[in-house]
Protein backbone atom coordinates (compact mmCIF):
# COMPACT_ATOMS: atom_id res chain seq x y z
CA UNK A 1 0.00 0.00 0.00
CA UNK A 2 1.14 3.57 -0.66
CA UNK A 3 2.29 5.03 2.71
CA UNK A 4 0.17 7.58 4.55
CA UNK A 5 3.01 10.15 4.63
CA UNK A 6 5.97 10.47 2.24
CA UNK A 7 8.31 11.42 5.08
CA UNK A 8 8.56 10.67 8.80
CA UNK A 9 6.45 13.15 10.77
CA UNK A 10 6.66 14.33 14.38
CA UNK A 11 4.46 17.42 14.52
CA UNK A 12 5.39 18.28 18.10
CA UNK A 13 9.01 18.80 16.97
CA UNK A 14 8.18 21.16 14.08
CA UNK A 15 7.64 24.94 14.01
CA UNK A 16 3.92 25.75 13.66
CA UNK A 17 2.42 28.58 11.61
CA UNK A 18 -1.31 29.28 11.81
CA UNK A 19 -3.49 30.71 9.04
CA UNK A 20 -7.26 30.77 8.48
CA UNK A 21 -7.03 29.50 4.90
CA UNK A 22 -4.17 27.60 3.22
CA UNK A 23 -4.17 27.59 -0.60
CA UNK A 24 -1.85 25.10 -2.30
CA UNK A 25 -1.12 26.20 -5.88
CA UNK A 26 -1.22 29.48 -7.77
CA UNK A 27 -3.11 29.09 -11.01
CA UNK A 28 -6.47 30.78 -11.60
CA UNK A 29 -8.10 28.54 -8.96
CA UNK A 30 -5.54 29.32 -6.26
CA UNK A 31 -5.22 33.05 -6.92
CA UNK A 32 -8.95 33.69 -7.30
CA UNK A 33 -9.86 31.66 -4.20
CA UNK A 34 -7.12 33.35 -2.14
CA UNK A 35 -8.22 36.85 -3.16
CA UNK A 36 -11.87 36.13 -2.34
CA UNK A 37 -10.96 34.42 0.96
CA UNK A 38 -8.71 37.35 2.01
CA UNK A 39 -11.78 39.60 2.37
CA UNK A 40 -12.50 37.93 5.74
CA UNK A 41 -9.58 35.57 6.48
CA UNK A 42 -5.80 35.42 6.70
CA UNK A 43 -4.53 33.46 3.70
CA UNK A 44 -1.31 31.65 2.82
CA UNK A 45 -0.56 30.70 -0.81
CA UNK A 46 2.03 27.92 -1.11
CA UNK A 47 3.52 27.43 -4.57
CA UNK A 48 6.39 25.09 -5.38
CA UNK A 49 7.80 27.45 -8.01
CA UNK A 50 6.35 30.96 -8.42
CA UNK A 51 3.00 32.70 -8.87
CA UNK A 52 3.47 32.75 -12.64
CA UNK A 53 4.10 29.00 -13.04
CA UNK A 54 0.84 27.14 -13.58
CA UNK A 55 -1.27 25.60 -16.31
CA UNK A 56 -3.47 28.72 -16.33
CA UNK A 57 -0.61 30.77 -17.71
CA UNK A 58 -0.57 28.59 -20.85
CA UNK A 59 -4.35 28.68 -21.45
CA UNK A 60 -4.84 30.34 -24.84
CA UNK A 61 -8.39 29.86 -26.04
CA UNK A 62 -10.25 31.66 -23.30
CA UNK A 63 -12.97 31.34 -20.71
CA UNK A 64 -16.49 30.11 -21.51
CA UNK A 65 -19.45 32.09 -20.13
CA UNK A 66 -22.90 33.12 -21.33
CA UNK A 67 -22.47 36.81 -22.19
CA UNK A 68 -24.21 37.28 -25.55
CA UNK A 69 -27.97 37.91 -25.82
CA UNK A 70 -28.10 35.16 -28.46
CA UNK A 71 -26.69 32.63 -25.98
CA UNK A 72 -28.31 31.13 -22.87
CA UNK A 73 -27.36 28.96 -19.88
CA UNK A 74 -29.55 26.22 -21.41
CA UNK A 75 -27.39 26.16 -24.57
CA UNK A 76 -24.16 26.15 -22.54
CA UNK A 77 -25.56 23.36 -20.36
CA UNK A 78 -26.50 21.25 -23.38
CA UNK A 79 -23.06 21.66 -25.00
CA UNK A 80 -21.31 20.71 -21.74
CA UNK A 81 -23.49 17.62 -21.22
CA UNK A 82 -22.98 16.42 -24.81
CA UNK A 83 -19.19 16.79 -24.55
CA UNK A 84 -19.20 15.04 -21.14
CA UNK A 85 -20.54 11.86 -22.75
CA UNK A 86 -23.12 10.98 -20.11
CA UNK A 87 -20.92 11.39 -17.02
CA UNK A 88 -21.51 15.04 -16.10
CA UNK A 89 -23.30 15.83 -12.86
CA UNK A 90 -26.41 17.83 -13.79
CA UNK A 91 -26.35 20.04 -10.70
CA UNK A 92 -22.66 20.86 -11.08
CA UNK A 93 -23.20 21.85 -14.73
CA UNK A 94 -26.17 24.03 -13.73
CA UNK A 95 -23.94 25.79 -11.19
CA UNK A 96 -21.25 26.38 -13.82
CA UNK A 97 -23.45 27.78 -16.60
CA UNK A 98 -25.56 29.99 -14.32
CA UNK A 99 -22.76 31.38 -12.13
CA UNK A 100 -20.08 31.65 -14.86
CA UNK A 101 -21.04 35.17 -16.08
CA UNK A 102 -20.86 36.50 -12.49
CA UNK A 103 -17.38 34.97 -12.16
CA UNK A 104 -16.21 36.69 -15.36
CA UNK A 105 -17.41 40.04 -14.00
CA UNK A 106 -15.40 39.33 -10.80
CA UNK A 107 -12.27 38.76 -12.92
CA UNK A 108 -12.84 42.08 -14.68
CA UNK A 109 -13.19 43.84 -11.30
CA UNK A 110 -9.89 42.23 -10.27
CA UNK A 111 -8.15 43.82 -13.25
CA UNK A 112 -8.37 41.24 -16.05
CA UNK A 113 -8.62 42.97 -19.42
CA UNK A 114 -10.51 40.84 -21.92
CA UNK A 115 -10.46 41.75 -25.61
CA UNK A 116 -13.22 44.12 -26.72
CA UNK A 117 -14.86 44.86 -30.06
CA UNK A 118 -16.87 48.10 -30.34
CA UNK A 119 -16.91 48.38 -26.54
CA UNK A 120 -18.38 44.86 -26.03
CA UNK A 121 -16.58 41.63 -25.08
CA UNK A 122 -15.12 40.02 -28.22
CA UNK A 123 -16.59 36.51 -28.21
CA UNK A 124 -15.32 33.57 -30.24
CA UNK A 125 -16.53 30.00 -30.77
CA UNK A 126 -14.62 26.80 -30.08
CA UNK A 127 -15.06 23.10 -30.81
CA UNK A 128 -18.35 21.55 -29.61
CA UNK A 129 -19.79 24.96 -28.55
CA UNK A 130 -23.04 25.88 -30.31
CA UNK A 131 -22.63 29.64 -29.67
CA UNK A 132 -19.92 32.30 -29.54
CA UNK A 133 -19.22 32.45 -25.79
CA UNK A 134 -15.44 32.37 -25.36
CA UNK A 135 -13.90 35.55 -23.92
CA UNK A 136 -10.21 35.96 -24.69
CA UNK A 137 -7.38 38.36 -23.87
CA UNK A 138 -4.56 39.63 -26.11
CA UNK A 139 -5.89 37.33 -28.81
CA UNK A 140 -4.58 34.00 -27.57
CA UNK A 141 -2.96 34.80 -24.21
CA UNK A 142 -6.03 34.64 -21.95
CA UNK A 143 -4.45 32.57 -19.19
CA UNK A 144 -1.39 34.79 -19.02
CA UNK A 145 -3.54 37.93 -18.69
CA UNK A 146 -5.68 36.38 -15.90
CA UNK A 147 -2.58 35.26 -13.96
CA UNK A 148 -0.98 38.70 -14.47
CA UNK A 149 -4.01 40.52 -13.06
CA UNK A 150 -4.68 38.13 -10.17
CA UNK A 151 -1.06 37.73 -9.06
CA UNK A 152 -0.61 41.52 -9.04
CA UNK A 153 -3.70 41.82 -6.83
CA UNK A 154 -2.62 38.96 -4.53
CA UNK A 155 0.91 40.28 -3.99
CA UNK A 156 -0.42 43.73 -3.07
CA UNK A 157 -2.91 42.27 -0.56
CA UNK A 158 -1.75 42.51 3.10
CA UNK A 159 -4.06 39.62 4.11
CA UNK A 160 -2.31 37.23 1.69
CA UNK A 161 1.15 35.79 2.36
CA UNK A 162 2.85 34.06 -0.60
CA UNK A 163 5.46 31.33 -0.19
CA UNK A 164 7.32 30.77 -3.45
CA UNK A 165 9.60 27.73 -3.86
CA UNK A 166 7.93 25.86 -0.97
CA UNK A 167 6.76 22.27 -1.38
CA UNK A 168 3.56 20.99 0.26
CA UNK A 169 4.58 17.40 1.08
CA UNK A 170 1.45 16.04 2.74
CA UNK A 171 -1.91 17.00 4.20
CA UNK A 172 -2.13 16.53 7.95
CA UNK A 173 -5.29 14.86 9.24
CA UNK A 174 -6.58 13.91 12.65
CA UNK A 175 -9.84 12.09 13.43
CA UNK A 176 -10.66 12.18 9.71
CA UNK A 177 -10.45 15.99 9.53
CA UNK A 178 -7.86 18.07 7.63
CA UNK A 179 -5.86 20.28 10.00
CA UNK A 180 -3.29 21.73 7.61
CA UNK A 181 -0.21 20.80 5.65
CA UNK A 182 3.40 19.70 6.11
CA UNK A 183 5.65 22.02 4.08
CA UNK A 184 9.32 21.94 3.09
CA UNK A 185 11.03 25.31 2.79
CA UNK A 186 13.68 26.14 0.14
CA UNK A 187 16.47 25.43 2.70
CA UNK A 188 15.09 21.94 3.43
CA UNK A 189 13.59 22.85 6.83
CA UNK A 190 10.04 21.55 7.43
CA UNK A 191 7.14 23.35 9.08
CA UNK A 192 3.56 22.50 9.94
CA UNK A 193 1.03 25.05 8.69
CA UNK A 194 -2.21 24.72 10.61
CA UNK A 195 -5.39 26.03 8.97
CA UNK A 196 -9.15 26.16 9.41
CA UNK A 197 -9.47 25.23 5.74
CA UNK A 198 -7.01 23.83 3.20
CA UNK A 199 -7.72 24.33 -0.51
CA UNK A 200 -5.95 22.18 -3.10
CA UNK A 201 -5.46 24.24 -6.29
CA UNK A 202 -2.41 22.32 -7.45
CA UNK A 203 -3.47 21.70 -11.05
CA UNK A 204 -3.28 18.61 -13.20
CA UNK A 205 -1.06 15.66 -14.03
CA UNK A 206 0.18 16.28 -17.58
CA UNK A 207 3.71 15.22 -16.63
CA UNK A 208 2.46 11.64 -16.38
CA UNK A 209 3.10 11.58 -20.14
CA UNK A 210 6.19 12.12 -22.26
CA UNK A 211 4.35 14.59 -24.52
CA UNK A 212 2.21 17.19 -22.80
CA UNK A 213 1.14 20.80 -23.18
CA UNK A 214 1.51 21.20 -19.39
CA UNK A 215 4.49 22.87 -17.69
CA UNK A 216 7.09 20.91 -15.68
CA UNK A 217 5.21 21.61 -12.43
CA UNK A 218 2.07 19.61 -13.40
CA UNK A 219 2.96 16.46 -11.48
CA UNK A 220 -0.42 15.64 -9.93
CA UNK A 221 0.73 16.53 -6.39
CA UNK A 222 -2.74 17.45 -5.08
CA UNK A 223 -4.41 14.22 -6.20
CA UNK A 224 -1.61 12.12 -4.68
CA UNK A 225 -1.62 14.06 -1.38
CA UNK A 226 -5.40 13.81 -1.10
CA UNK A 227 -5.29 10.06 -1.89
CA UNK A 228 -2.69 9.46 0.85
CA UNK A 229 -4.87 11.43 3.27
CA UNK A 230 -7.89 9.21 2.52
CA UNK A 231 -9.92 11.39 0.14
CA UNK A 232 -11.98 9.87 -2.68
CA UNK A 233 -10.36 10.14 -6.12
CA UNK A 234 -12.81 9.97 -9.02
CA UNK A 235 -12.69 9.36 -12.80
CA UNK A 236 -8.91 9.69 -13.27
CA UNK A 237 -8.99 7.41 -16.32
CA UNK A 238 -10.38 10.35 -18.30
CA UNK A 239 -7.35 12.27 -19.56
CA UNK A 240 -7.89 14.65 -22.42
CA UNK A 241 -5.24 14.72 -25.09
CA UNK A 242 -5.28 18.02 -26.93
CA UNK A 243 -5.41 17.18 -30.63
CA UNK A 244 -3.11 19.95 -31.84
CA UNK A 245 0.21 20.48 -30.07
CA UNK A 246 3.17 21.69 -32.11
CA UNK A 247 5.23 18.67 -33.21
CA UNK A 248 8.51 19.97 -34.57
CA UNK A 249 12.17 19.08 -33.87
CA UNK A 250 13.61 21.20 -31.06
CA UNK A 251 10.26 22.79 -30.17
CA UNK A 252 8.26 22.10 -26.98
CA UNK A 253 4.80 20.51 -27.35
CA UNK A 254 3.36 23.99 -27.50
CA UNK A 255 -0.45 24.14 -27.50
CA UNK A 256 -2.06 25.37 -30.71
CA UNK A 257 -5.46 26.47 -29.50
CA UNK A 258 -8.76 24.99 -30.58
CA UNK A 259 -9.68 28.58 -31.42
CA UNK A 260 -7.48 28.29 -34.54
CA UNK A 261 -9.84 25.57 -35.80
CA UNK A 262 -12.74 27.67 -34.49
CA UNK A 263 -11.61 30.40 -36.92
CA UNK A 264 -11.57 27.97 -39.84
CA UNK A 265 -8.25 26.06 -39.80
CA UNK A 266 -8.39 22.57 -41.35
CA UNK A 267 -6.44 19.38 -40.64
CA UNK A 268 -4.53 17.58 -43.40
CA UNK A 269 -2.51 14.36 -43.32
CA UNK A 270 1.04 14.33 -44.68
CA UNK A 271 -0.35 13.62 -48.15
CA UNK A 272 -2.12 16.97 -47.92
CA UNK A 273 -5.62 15.38 -47.73
CA UNK A 274 -8.25 16.89 -45.47
CA UNK A 275 -9.51 13.91 -43.45
CA UNK A 276 -11.98 14.91 -40.70
CA UNK A 277 -15.06 14.28 -42.88
CA UNK A 278 -14.25 10.56 -42.55
CA UNK A 279 -14.60 10.76 -38.76
CA UNK A 280 -17.29 13.21 -37.65
CA UNK A 281 -19.97 15.51 -39.14
CA UNK A 282 -18.59 18.47 -37.15
CA UNK A 283 -15.25 18.01 -38.96
CA UNK A 284 -12.40 19.92 -37.25
CA UNK A 285 -14.78 21.17 -34.56
CA UNK A 286 -15.75 17.69 -33.33
CA UNK A 287 -15.14 16.95 -29.62
CA UNK A 288 -11.46 16.82 -28.71
CA UNK A 289 -11.28 13.06 -28.12
CA UNK A 290 -12.70 12.38 -31.60
CA UNK A 291 -10.24 14.77 -33.28
CA UNK A 292 -7.27 13.41 -31.30
CA UNK A 293 -8.06 9.77 -32.20
CA UNK A 294 -8.65 10.71 -35.84
CA UNK A 295 -5.20 12.33 -35.94
CA UNK A 296 -3.60 9.21 -34.39
CA UNK A 297 -5.33 7.03 -37.01
CA UNK A 298 -4.04 9.23 -39.83
CA UNK A 299 -0.52 9.23 -38.36
CA UNK A 300 -0.55 5.42 -38.19
CA UNK A 301 -2.03 4.97 -41.67
CA UNK A 302 0.43 7.35 -43.34
CA UNK A 303 3.39 6.11 -41.26
CA UNK A 304 4.23 9.64 -40.08
CA UNK A 305 4.63 11.37 -36.72
CA UNK A 306 2.28 14.32 -37.26
CA UNK A 307 -0.50 15.86 -39.34
CA UNK A 308 -0.77 19.47 -40.56
CA UNK A 309 -2.94 22.32 -39.32
CA UNK A 310 -3.67 24.67 -42.22
CA UNK A 311 -4.97 28.21 -41.69
CA UNK A 312 -3.23 29.66 -44.78
CA UNK A 313 -6.57 30.64 -46.39
CA UNK A 314 -6.92 33.41 -43.78
CA UNK A 315 -5.20 36.76 -44.21
CA UNK A 316 -1.85 37.33 -42.55
CA UNK A 317 -3.30 40.36 -40.77
CA UNK A 318 -6.14 38.30 -39.22
CA UNK A 319 -3.79 35.47 -38.13
CA UNK A 320 -1.32 37.87 -36.47
CA UNK A 321 -4.07 39.87 -34.76
CA UNK A 322 -6.09 36.89 -33.48
CA UNK A 323 -3.21 34.56 -32.56
CA UNK A 324 -0.17 36.73 -31.72
CA UNK A 325 1.32 34.28 -29.19
CA UNK A 326 0.95 31.17 -31.38
CA UNK A 327 2.21 33.12 -34.39
CA UNK A 328 5.26 34.33 -32.45
CA UNK A 329 6.17 30.90 -31.03
CA UNK A 330 5.84 29.18 -34.44
CA UNK A 331 8.01 31.91 -35.99
CA UNK A 332 10.78 31.15 -33.46
CA UNK A 333 11.06 27.72 -35.11
CA UNK A 334 10.90 29.00 -38.70
CA UNK A 335 7.18 28.28 -39.17
CA UNK A 336 4.86 31.05 -40.42
CA UNK A 337 1.26 30.35 -39.32
CA UNK A 338 -0.06 32.57 -42.12
CA UNK A 339 1.77 30.81 -44.98
CA UNK A 340 2.92 27.38 -43.69
CA UNK A 341 1.07 24.24 -42.73
CA UNK A 342 1.96 23.65 -39.06
CA UNK A 343 2.94 20.09 -37.96
CA UNK A 344 0.84 18.99 -34.98
CA UNK A 345 0.14 15.85 -32.94
CA UNK A 346 -1.91 15.09 -29.80
CA UNK A 347 -0.38 15.68 -26.36
CA UNK A 348 -1.68 15.10 -22.82
CA UNK A 349 -3.57 18.22 -21.83
CA UNK A 350 -6.19 18.00 -19.08
CA UNK A 351 -7.42 15.57 -16.43
CA UNK A 352 -11.21 15.45 -16.15
CA UNK A 353 -11.15 13.46 -12.91
CA UNK A 354 -9.49 14.34 -9.62
CA UNK A 355 -10.34 14.73 -5.96
CA UNK A 356 -14.08 14.26 -5.59
CA UNK A 357 -15.90 17.32 -4.24
CA UNK A 358 -19.46 18.40 -3.51
CA UNK A 359 -21.06 21.53 -4.99
CA UNK A 360 -19.18 23.69 -2.49
CA UNK A 361 -15.81 22.26 -3.47
CA UNK A 362 -15.46 20.26 -0.22
CA UNK A 363 -13.86 16.82 -0.50
CA UNK A 364 -14.80 13.66 1.44
CA UNK A 365 -12.40 14.91 4.17
CA UNK A 366 -13.92 17.77 6.20
CA UNK A 367 -12.02 21.12 5.92
CA UNK A 368 -10.23 19.92 2.77
CA UNK A 369 -11.35 21.57 -0.47
CA UNK A 370 -10.27 21.15 -4.09
CA UNK A 371 -10.64 23.67 -6.91
CA UNK A 372 -9.64 23.72 -10.57
CA UNK A 373 -8.07 20.83 -12.45
CA UNK A 374 -7.16 18.90 -9.27
CA UNK A 375 -10.87 18.56 -8.45
CA UNK A 376 -13.66 16.35 -9.74
CA UNK A 377 -16.74 18.55 -9.38
CA UNK A 378 -18.74 16.59 -11.95
CA UNK A 379 -18.74 19.44 -14.48
CA UNK A 380 -16.55 17.82 -17.14
CA UNK A 381 -17.83 14.23 -17.15
CA UNK A 382 -15.79 12.03 -19.49
CA UNK A 383 -14.58 14.89 -21.70
CA UNK A 384 -14.17 18.59 -20.90
CA UNK A 385 -15.80 21.13 -23.16
CA UNK A 386 -13.18 23.64 -24.38
CA UNK A 387 -12.70 26.71 -22.15
CA UNK A 388 -14.92 25.40 -19.33
CA UNK A 389 -11.89 24.87 -17.07
CA UNK A 390 -11.19 28.53 -16.29
CA UNK A 391 -14.87 29.20 -15.57
CA UNK A 392 -15.08 26.11 -13.33
CA UNK A 393 -12.17 27.43 -11.24
CA UNK A 394 -13.76 30.81 -10.51
CA UNK A 395 -17.30 29.49 -10.01
CA UNK A 396 -16.26 26.83 -7.49
CA UNK A 397 -13.61 29.11 -5.95
CA UNK A 398 -16.41 31.52 -4.98
CA UNK A 399 -18.47 28.66 -3.52
CA UNK A 400 -15.52 27.34 -1.50
CA UNK A 401 -14.97 30.76 0.10
CA UNK A 402 -18.66 31.01 0.96
CA UNK A 403 -18.56 27.55 2.59
CA UNK A 404 -15.38 28.39 4.56
CA UNK A 405 -17.14 31.50 5.88
CA UNK A 406 -19.76 29.31 7.57
CA UNK A 407 -17.29 26.95 9.28
CA UNK A 408 -16.33 26.93 12.97
CA UNK A 409 -12.63 27.53 13.76
CA UNK A 410 -10.39 24.47 14.12
CA UNK A 411 -9.82 23.97 17.85
CA UNK A 412 -7.67 20.82 18.02
CA UNK A 413 -3.88 20.81 17.97
CA UNK A 414 -3.11 17.67 15.93
CA UNK A 415 -0.67 15.19 17.46
CA UNK A 416 0.75 13.21 14.57
CA UNK A 417 3.77 10.92 14.81
CA UNK A 418 4.51 8.74 11.80
CA UNK A 419 7.62 6.65 11.28
CA UNK A 420 8.35 4.10 8.56
CA UNK A 421 11.24 1.72 8.05
CA UNK A 422 13.22 3.36 5.27
CA UNK A 423 15.83 1.81 2.99
CA UNK A 424 18.15 4.77 2.52
CA UNK A 425 18.25 7.38 -0.22
CA UNK A 426 16.96 6.72 -3.78
CA UNK A 427 19.66 4.91 -5.80
CA UNK A 428 18.64 5.65 -9.40
CA UNK A 429 18.50 9.26 -10.65
CA UNK A 430 14.94 10.54 -10.34
CA UNK A 431 15.08 12.09 -13.84
CA UNK A 432 15.59 8.56 -15.31
CA UNK A 433 12.76 7.09 -13.23
CA UNK A 434 10.45 9.91 -14.34
CA UNK A 435 11.24 9.37 -18.02
CA UNK A 436 10.63 5.64 -17.68
CA UNK A 437 7.26 6.28 -16.01
CA UNK A 438 6.25 8.71 -18.77
CA UNK A 439 7.15 6.19 -21.47
CA UNK A 440 5.11 3.47 -19.72
CA UNK A 441 2.10 5.80 -19.59
CA UNK A 442 2.39 6.83 -23.27
CA UNK A 443 2.74 3.23 -24.36
CA UNK A 444 0.09 1.54 -22.23
CA UNK A 445 -2.30 4.21 -20.86
CA UNK A 446 -2.30 6.86 -23.61
CA UNK A 447 -4.92 7.79 -26.18
CA UNK A 448 -5.82 4.18 -27.07
CA UNK A 449 -5.76 1.46 -24.43
CA UNK A 450 -6.49 -2.25 -24.02
CA UNK A 451 -6.45 -4.73 -21.12
CA UNK A 452 -3.15 -6.50 -21.82
CA UNK A 453 -1.20 -3.24 -22.16
CA UNK A 454 -2.85 -1.64 -19.11
CA UNK A 455 -2.10 -4.71 -16.97
CA UNK A 456 1.52 -4.75 -18.19
CA UNK A 457 1.85 -1.01 -17.55
CA UNK A 458 0.41 -1.34 -14.03
CA UNK A 459 2.77 -4.19 -13.23
CA UNK A 460 5.79 -2.15 -14.43
CA UNK A 461 4.65 0.83 -12.33
CA UNK A 462 4.17 -1.35 -9.24
CA UNK A 463 7.78 -2.52 -9.54
CA UNK A 464 8.73 1.08 -8.67
CA UNK A 465 6.86 0.98 -5.32
CA UNK A 466 10.01 0.41 -3.20
CA UNK A 467 10.74 4.09 -3.97
CA UNK A 468 8.13 5.01 -1.31
CA UNK A 469 10.37 3.38 1.32
CA UNK A 470 13.32 5.65 0.45
CA UNK A 471 14.36 8.71 2.45
CA UNK A 472 12.92 11.54 0.32
CA UNK A 473 14.35 15.03 0.75
CA UNK A 474 14.19 16.87 -2.59
CA UNK A 475 11.34 18.43 -4.55
CA UNK A 476 11.93 16.17 -7.59
CA UNK A 477 11.74 13.08 -5.32
CA UNK A 478 8.39 14.16 -3.86
CA UNK A 479 7.17 14.91 -7.38
CA UNK A 480 8.17 11.47 -8.61
CA UNK A 481 6.36 9.81 -5.66
CA UNK A 482 3.26 11.82 -6.61
CA UNK A 483 3.60 10.95 -10.31
CA UNK A 484 3.97 7.25 -9.47
CA UNK A 485 0.82 7.44 -7.30
CA UNK A 486 -1.12 9.20 -10.07
CA UNK A 487 0.10 6.80 -12.75
CA UNK A 488 -1.04 3.75 -10.76
CA UNK A 489 -4.45 5.33 -10.02
CA UNK A 490 -5.02 6.26 -13.67
CA UNK A 491 -3.97 2.84 -14.95
CA UNK A 492 -6.13 0.99 -12.38
CA UNK A 493 -9.20 3.08 -13.24
CA UNK A 494 -8.61 2.62 -17.00
CA UNK A 495 -8.29 -1.15 -16.54
CA UNK A 496 -11.56 -1.35 -14.61
CA UNK A 497 -13.64 0.69 -17.11
CA UNK A 498 -14.41 -1.85 -19.83
CA UNK A 499 -15.96 0.49 -22.38
CA UNK A 500 -15.01 3.55 -24.43
CA UNK A 501 -16.45 6.89 -23.36
CA UNK A 502 -15.24 10.45 -23.88
CA UNK A 503 -11.48 10.68 -23.47
CA UNK A 504 -11.16 7.01 -22.36
CA UNK A 505 -10.83 4.74 -25.39
CA UNK A 506 -10.41 0.97 -25.10
CA UNK A 507 -9.55 -0.84 -28.34
CA UNK A 508 -10.88 -4.09 -26.78
CA UNK A 509 -14.17 -2.38 -25.76
CA UNK A 510 -14.64 0.25 -28.51
CA UNK A 511 -18.33 0.95 -27.75
CA UNK A 512 -19.88 3.10 -25.05
CA UNK A 513 -21.90 0.95 -22.63
CA UNK A 514 -24.53 3.00 -20.80
CA UNK A 515 -26.17 -0.06 -19.30
CA UNK A 516 -23.11 -1.13 -17.31
CA UNK A 517 -20.82 1.89 -17.25
CA UNK A 518 -22.85 5.06 -16.82
CA UNK A 519 -21.17 5.47 -13.46
CA UNK A 520 -18.02 6.87 -11.89
CA UNK A 521 -14.89 5.00 -10.91
CA UNK A 522 -13.77 5.92 -7.41
CA UNK A 523 -10.44 5.10 -5.79
CA UNK A 524 -9.70 5.13 -2.07
CA UNK A 525 -6.42 4.34 -0.32
CA UNK A 526 -7.96 1.59 1.80
CA UNK A 527 -11.05 0.53 -0.15
CA UNK A 528 -9.25 0.28 -3.52
CA UNK A 529 -11.23 0.80 -6.76
CA UNK A 530 -14.99 1.06 -6.33
CA UNK A 531 -17.85 2.31 -8.47
CA UNK A 532 -20.32 5.08 -7.82
CA UNK A 533 -23.59 5.14 -9.68
CA UNK A 534 -25.67 8.28 -9.87
CA UNK A 535 -29.34 8.86 -10.49
CA UNK A 536 -29.39 12.34 -12.00
CA UNK A 537 -27.69 11.57 -15.32
Automatic annotation (TrEMBL):
Active site residues according to the UniProt entry: 288 (proton acceptor)
Q: Which GO terms describe its biological process?
A: 'de novo' NAD+ biosynthetic process from L-aspartate
In terms of SUPFAM superfamilies, this protein maps to: FAD/NAD(P)-binding domain, Succinate dehydrogenase/fumarate reductase flavoprotein C-terminal domain, Succinate dehydrogenase/fumarate reductase flavoprotein, catalytic domain
Provide a GO CC annotation, any one: cytoplasm
* The keyword Oxidoreductase belongs to this UniProt entry's keyword annotation: yes
List, alphabetically, the InterPro entries matched.
FAD-dep_OxRdtase_2_FAD-bd, FAD/NAD-bd_sf, Fum_R/Succ_DH_flav-like_C_sf, Fum_Rdtase/Succ_DH_flav-like_C, NadB, Succ_DH/fumarate_Rdtase_cat_sf
- State where it is primarily located: cytoplasm
Q: Which cofactor does it need?
A: FAD
Keywords from the named record: FAD, Flavoprotein, Oxidoreductase, Pyridine nucleotide biosynthesis
Residue ranges of domain Fumarate reductase/succinate dehydrogenase flavoprotein-like C-terminal in the record: 434-526
Enzyme Commission designation: 1.4.3.16
Instruction: List the molecular function annotations (GO) for this entry.
Output: L-aspartate oxidase activity; steroid dehydrogenase activity, acting on the CH-CH group of donors
Q: Where in the cell is it found?
A: Cytoplasm
Q: Which residues form the FAD-dependent oxidoreductase 2 FAD-binding domain?
A: 20-390
Classify the source by domain of life. Bacteria
Catalytic reaction list: L-aspartate + O2 = iminosuccinate + H2O2
Pathway annotation from the record: Cofactor biosynthesis; NAD(+) biosynthesis; iminoaspartate from L-aspartate (oxidase route): step 1/1
Pfam families noted in UniProt:
FAD_binding_2 (PF00890), Succ_DH_flav_C (PF02910)
Question: Which protein family is it in?
Answer: Belongs to the FAD-dependent oxidoreductase 2 family. NadB subfamily.
The role this protein plays is: Catalyzes the oxidation of L-aspartate to iminoaspartate.
The protein's name is: L-aspartate oxidase
